[in-house]
Amino acid sequence: MSDLYESYVFDRSRGWMSLDIYYEPGLNVALLHHTGHVSVKQGDSRYADTWIDRLQDCKPIALHTFLVEDEKIPALFQPCVYDDRDSPSAVGGSGCLCRKSMTDPITGLPVVREHYRTVSGNIESWTYKTITSRGLPEGRTVRSLIVDKHQFWMRDDESGELHFLPRTDSSGYGIGYGGGGPYTLCQMIEQLVESDGANSTPVRWRDKPNGALAAWARNDEISHQGEYTIKELRSLIR
């Protein structure tokens, strides 16, 4: 490894928050590897709201800064307009562009809540940004895969808790069209089926997916939304 590059792995209990942090000293470049950045808005779906409801406020740590633009990092330390009309994140005394640091108490993963409120208050939204895990902890299995409106989730067989389906930033999931997203989803489904839900790590490159499964995933004439058990996923592979 070159002296110009350093790599660190933050490992917590061999599952959650297994992150590779890479940076170039003196160049202000830092990246998170092997984790996918995801975001949902309050009200997107019942799954998103269930996940949001369990989040907890916390003080910002270094990992939160990877979830916001560099110029917005100071906003993590600034009050919301509801708390201070003169906050640096306030706009015109009633609008707001603050950022709030949170954590998922189940996984320990960092979450940033982005507030967008116009000065008139006629438009207001909260967007929650985080990164996916590297898979369920050792010994835990996936009960079901969920195809949501805007996201893909998995449910822990032991606790029933929801988690984002693990992915990398270079391999997102999709459904209902002929692109690479459905292809990657098919690969994850096959991995889950082959391991009976034990292997939920971000999928690696595999051979072409099963033909019947690919046809289902790419079909734009059906609704794919729903929760699929491992048994139901197995039935899609013929």
Topology:
Blueprint: E1 6-10, E2 19-24, E3 29-33, E4 37-41, H1 46-53, E5 56-57, E6 90-91, E7 95-96, E8 99-103, E9 110-117, E10 124-131, E11 142-147, E12 152-156, E13 162-164, H2 180-194, H3 211-218, E14 226-229, H4 230-235
Antiparallel strand pairs: 1-2, 2-3, 4-10, 5-8, 6-7, 8-9, 9-10, 11-12, 11-14, 12-13
Question: What do you see in this structure?
Answer:
It contains 4 helices and 14 strands. It has helices at residues 46-53, 180-194, 211-218, 230-235; strands spanning 6-10, 19-24, 29-33, 37-41, 56-57, 90-91, 95-96, 99-103, 110-117, 124-131, 142-147, 152-156, 162-164, 226-229. A hairpin with a 4-residue loop joins strand 11 and strand 12 (152-156). It starts with 5 loop residues before the first strand and ends with a helix. Residues 1-18 have low confidence and may be disordered.
**Percentage of residues in helical conformation:** 10-25%
Kindly state the number of beta strands. Answer: 14
The share of residues in extended strands comes to: 25-35%
Strand order of the largest sheet: 4-10-9-8-5
Biggest sheet record: 5 strands, antiparallel
